[in-house]
Amino acid sequence: MKFTTFFFLLAIILTVSVLSAESKNTYKGHSSKPVRDTIIKLDSVRDKKLLRIKKTKQNISTLGVENTGLNNNYNIVPATDTIIKRDTIKNGKAVKGKKNGATPATKKTTAQTDTTQKKGDIQSEVKAVAEDSTHVDNEHNILYLYGRARVTYEDFELDADFIRVDQKNHIIFARGSIDPRTHRYIGRPISKQKTEKPVSSDSLLFNYETKKGKLYNPASEQEGNFISGGQAKKLNETEVAYRNVIFSTCDLPYPETHFGIVITRGIGEKNRIISGPAYLEIEGIPLPLAIPFGFFPKPNQRTSGVILPTFGEDQQLGFKLSNFGYYLGFNDYIDLTTTATVYSKGSYELNSVMRYLKRYKYTGNLALSFGSHNYGLPGDPATKDVHIDWTHSQDPNANPGSTFSASVNAGTSGFFRNTRGTVNVNTIATSSLRSSISYGKTWAGTPFNLSVGLSHSQDIANKTITIELPTVAFGMSSINPFDSKDRVGEQKWYQKITVSYNMTATNKVNNIPEAELFKSETLSKRLQNGFQHQIPVSLGLNVLKYFQFNSSINYTERWYFQSITKRFERGSTSNSDQLITDTVPGFKRAGEYSVSTGLSTKLYGQVNFKHGNLKAIRHVMTPSISFGYRPDFSDPSFGYYKTAVSNATIPYPYASQKYSIFDGAVYGGPSPGKQAGLNFSVDNTIEAKVKAKSTDTSGTDRKITILQGLSFSTFYNFAADSMKLSPITFSGHTAIFNQKLSISFQGSFNPYVTSIRDSIENNTIKRYAVPINRYTWQDGKFPQLSNIGISMSGSLNSTKAAARGTPGAVNGLANLTPTQSQRLALVNSDPNAYVDFNVPWNINFNYSYSYTNSLNTVTTSNTVQISGDVNVSPKWKVQYSTNYDIKAGKLGSATSFSIYRDLHCWDLSIQWIPFGYLKSYNVTLKVKSTILQDLKLSKRNDYTNSGTFY
């Protein structure tokens, strides 16, 4: 009882003290006198000119109120939202009492205040809301908002931890607060007007009628450029006066910004800043690099402009002026970048890149490149190279039922080798180029679909090109022709018969030398075309409960508009190779069919264990046997094959050769040889069941795959006169170490005995193998291993949780913003441009082994490839890639190392290829900002510069 009495007495004393302090205007939480605005969180040395505030008693009180970051350390009774309306026409005073709906001044809740300003017939409303509390000073007509406060007026928006609205003078003051636990300054004001980007500051003053204001230590971003520190004064809707601000590429506000240009005085317009004296500052240290005036870009949209060049030297081509050009930003959907590199010895390179994007429709990138290089003596003809790179992707939801995509990568064979723009091991070592452009259409409610495409493949080593233009495919998905739409109950056996149809047509030029591609004779004489129709009919049934019966008939029809005939040149002998091929125009058709039927089932076996963590091992075997038949389409009765016979000459007999009239056709012709035999195959899967880990609260047993897809297959052809059994093939796959190491293997066994014989050719003895129609097990031997290949690959890494603000993978490519799409395109074009510090270390490895035994010769290969990266420190990362030939005992020539240093707003990267043909290094220091991406220092030694480093 005494304790309760003491508690109430103490409460009464505290209440009287607070009321007394408020009556004397000494309570710091809510002084009824208007307080003076204060500049806070500025640097006392660098911004001393901005801190000229008289230390009056009132100012001391102000510092005490506004810098302590008080958040509701006074007792406020919960109540409803406070709405205060004021008529500025009536002497600028607020209507007091119940007319304006004012409730008691001190309220604790999320409070909202609306103030209506009248300008003739136009009314503007000031809306204010605070998460913690509000305080209304009715005497001075001032509103105080505490804790995540927000004020909006027309097109002006303001968020801060504390906001004061002086409704009499139309002044808004905002600041943050100091966190009592971390003592860090939090809740900085963030203001935004119209379509301008948000501006953060330590504190601000704003007149919401004249739209003028002051910001102290502002921080804003404009397309990769950042303005922070000092003071900004808004003169009107389009101009801002700056004083002692830093123009930088660093995305942190002052004083964290460690590099930039200090603008002592300047005027910021919509797209630029016109400055007075300015100087360079690094790590807070001013450098003797100054300008009396300057112009700095501050674009709010894509802006065209000149791309500054870089200087360098190439030992073969001379001094160079590289990557200078012009950028054209047509609009928000398309831009064009054109650059050039010229060399003092007459060589040059041109590159033009166009990017386009229409959100929810499509995105793409088109690059055209041309190079003229003279590596020979002066006066020799230059080597000219061209290249085109085009990617186009369509949003799946843009046009339901139709798709269009393109991936073009084509050019001359020497483009990557001759162009000095970049040293990329992957592109230089590329052996082939491929392109495809496709359009697809499906008709809703029907089984029909259509696709049209263009394709290109190029062998760089042989300098040959294969082009298909176009390829048309029309198909019908599987249907049940004997099934009824009104069927009730299960399907009968004949209703399960399925039929489908596929038609393809193409025009193809095959293996044309690059130099002959654009000649008229190429299209007129070497262009091949044809149609192929495929009609598969199949039936699947369950037989005797445990067996799956499958039967199919496949018919293929090919149409061609030309065929071939072969003949021996007059005077040819059996020991000469003078066979002449003639092309015969005219329509020719070729039809072939095959029939197959088979049975398959599954067999299960399981071994259980009573002790230990291993509970059971299960083996699933899937054997199948099928019979297949295909006639011999090389029989003369079909007319698909002919025989070329030479004239008999003494002392040599005649020579003959059987050939298909469709040799070299785009879809080929029917295969020779009769097949009527059995196909045997068996597939195995072995799994283990292990007890749940002690940390697993669900208690569910774990299933681990020991061996997956271990299969054996062979074919026995009854129609063959000898060697009826085909080689026995096998393959398998497994993954160990918690699926981190993947292992695959495949190979074949030869079931027949093979004899080794010798022959003499050019006075040398050569050995060759001759198969004998006798099985190895007849001699008590296991079938001979003809070939085997083993590959192992895996990835080990130490991943961290995604960084704060990093979008998760669930967003998908469909939700990428235009900026993210551009960055993704950059990563795809140059993976080394992206460095992820969220993964401390990563190792990717791939081991491959192959063995081939033809008895007279045995060949093997044994290589391992390793690549990855490691964080040496939170800002240093080392990337590596190499391959090692175990058989030869040496590293591959593509070994490379890359060192990356994150300098916050700068990047330092070093690429080094220490030996081999591509021996080179490249050191680049560049700005991260996309606007200033050409601001960089580069030192390199190309792989062409005699292999010496300087």
Structure description:
This protein is mostly beta strands. About 5% of the residues lie in helices and about 55% in strands. The relative contact order is 0.05. The protein has a 30-stranded antiparallel sheet that branches. The protein contains six helices and 56 strands. Residues about 1-10, about 20-35, about 55-110, about 115-125, about 800-815, about 820-830 and about 945-950 have low confidence and may be disordered. The longest helix has 22 residues, at about 1-25. It is extended and about 120 Å long.
What profile does the largest beta sheet have? Answer: 30 strands, antiparallel
The tally of beta strands, per DSSP, is: 56
- Poorly predicted ranges (pLDDT <50, ≥5 residues)? 1-8, 18-35, 53-111, 114-123, 800-816, 820-832, 943-950
Q: What structural category arises from helix and sheet content?
A: mainly beta
Oligomer: single chain
How many helices? The count is: 6
* Average predicted local confidence, pLDDT: 78
- Principal-axes shape call: extended
Work out the radius of gyration: 40 Å
Estimate percent helicity: under 10%
